[in-house]
Amino acid sequence: xxxxxxxxxxxxxxxxxxxxxxxxxxxxxxxxxxxxxxxxxxxxxxxxxxxxxxxxxxxxxxxxxxxxxxxxxxxxxxxxxxxxxxxxxxxxxxxxxxxxxxxxxxxxxxxxxxxxxxxxxxxxxxxxxxxxxxxxxxxxxxxxxxxxxxxxxxxxxxxxxxxxxxxxxxxxxxxxxxxxxxxxxxxxxxxxxxxxxxxxxxxxxxxxxxxxxxxxxxxxxxxxxxxxxxxxxxxxxxxxxxxxxxxxxxxxxxxxxxxxxxxxxxxxxxxxxxxxxxxxxxxxxxxxxxxxxxxxxxxxxxxxxxxxxxxxxxxxxxxxxxxxxxxxxxxxxxxxxxxxxxxxxxxxxxxxxxxxxxxxxxxxxxxxxxxxxxxxxxxxxxxxxxxxxxxxxxxxxxxxxxxxxxxxxxxxxxxxxxxxxxxxxxxxxxxxxxxxxxxxxxxxxxxxxxxxxxxxxxxxxxxxxxxxxxxxxxxxxxxxxxxxxxxxxxxxxxxxxxxxxxxxxxxxxx
Length: 510
Known about the structure:
- With 510 residues, the chain is α/β, with parallel strands linked by helices.
- It folds into 3 domains: 1-87 and 170-177 and 196-252, P-loop containing nucleotide triphosphate hydrolases (Rossmann fold, 3-Layer(aba) Sandwich); 96-167, no CATH class; 255-338 and 423-436 and 456-510, P-loop containing nucleotide triphosphate hydrolases (Rossmann fold, 3-Layer(aba) Sandwich), CATH 3.40.50.300.
- The protein is built from 18 helices and 20 strands.
- The chain has helices spanning 50-57, 80-85, 103-107, 123-138, 153-166, 183-198, 210-216, 239-247, 301-308, 331-336, 346-350, 357-361, 376-390, 406-419, 436-451, 463-469, 492-499, 502-509; strands at residues 10-21, 24-35, 39-43, 65-70, 73-74, 88-91, 171-175, 202-206, 219-224, 227-233, 265-274, 278-286, 290-294, 316-321, 324-326, 339-342, 424-428, 455-459, 472-477, 480-486.
- The strands form 4 sheets. Strands 6-7-8-3-9-10 form a 6-stranded mixed β-sheet.
- Strand 4 and strand 5 form a beta hairpin.
- The longest helix has 16 residues, at 123-138.
C-alpha cells in the first residue's frame, strides 16, 4: 500500500514551530520528526500543543515561525486538500462524518469514481472497491446504503479508516481513536494498526492512554507547554516515565493519596441483584474511605454503580445508607440521601454544555439559593469558591462549560455535588478522556473528599489508577464480586488476573 523503499527516513518533519492565537502562544518552538513506516506516538496534557501541531500538519493552521516538511519537501502553506494529495489522512476522535450520508457516499465524498470520459458515477466500481477493503482489513461488510447516523461508534471509525485506505495513504494520523470504543473494538483497531505498519503505512498516534502508546508505538514525542521535551524509543521507557515527563513531576507524585483513617460505615450493600446483570453483590463503604470497583465490560460493576444511584431498579438485596434501608431508590431519593454520581459520559450526562460554570455547579442544589427567587450573588460566590478550590481553569464562572477542557468539565461535574454537600460519591471512570495533568488533579480531589470524611466509590478500568487512589479494590467477573484486595499490598498483575478470569479458572481447577 505504501512505499517502503525509503523506510526510516523522515516523512513528516516540523522544526521549531511557533504558533500564536492573539496574545496566547500555543507552540513555542516545537519540533516533531516522524520516520517512514514507524508508529509514532504524540502525547501531552490538554493545552500542551498537540491539537495545534496536528492542525498544522492537516493544513488547518499556518505556523508563524518554523519549517514544515512532508516527504522531504518544505511547504510554506498547506491546505487540507494538498495534505490529502500528499498522502496524509486523519482519523479524528469526533468522526467528522455527515450523519445523513450513506456509507457509500461517505466513503467516496470528493473522490467519486466515474465512468471514463463522463460525469457519471460508477457506483458498481465504488461498491466493489469499498467491499474489497472492508473485507481485507476488517473481515466485514457494511451495507453501502446504510446511514452513518445508524452506525455504531466502531463502525463509524471503520468508515473513516476505509475512506483513508481507498486513497492509498502514506501516513495515517489517529487522533484519540479509542475514546468511544469498548475494549474489544479497541483491540481490533490495534491489530489493524500493526498490520498497516507492517505494510509500510506510517502511523502518527495521539492518545491520552499511555498504555496504548507503550503497546503500539515505536517512538513517542512528549509535548509540554508548547514545546517537545523528549522523543524516546518506547521499548526503553515506561508509561509512568512518559507521564512524569508530561507533567514534569516525579513518578511517585502521580497518585497523591493522603493517609486517612476510615470512620463509621455509611453504605452497606447486601446480596444486591439485578436480573441478567449481577447477583449476590455485598460491600461496605466507610466515611473517609476510597473503594475501587473494576471488571471487564459486562462484568456487572457499572450496573452496580447505576443501581446504587437509582438509575436501575434492583431485583433483590438490600441497600442501607447510614443504617436506613433503601428500597427501589430513584435518583432523586439517592440525591436526598447525599449520594452523588459523576457519570462516565460527562458531556452527555454529567454537565450541561450550553450552561455556564455557575449554572452547572449549582444545578443540583438550587433549593439552597432560592426562596422565591434565586440568590444570584450567593450562587456566584459558591461557584467562585469551588472554582478556586478545585483549580478549575476557566475564563470566569459565567463561561459556558463547553468552552472548558475535558478535565475541567469533569471537575465542574464534581463541583456540582460538592455544592450539594454530598457524603457518598460514586465516580464512574472519573478520568476517562482527560490528560495526565488533569488526572493528577482529580486524584488529588478524591483524596481531599476522603480527608473531609466523604465516602468515595471509584469505578475504573485503569488498574494502576485504582491501586494508586483507593484503599480497597473489588473485582467483578461475570456478575459477581470474585476478589477483594488491599490496594497498597497488591500489584496490577494480580488484579488483571482476576479481571480476566484467570484466578477463577485456577480456583475451579484446583
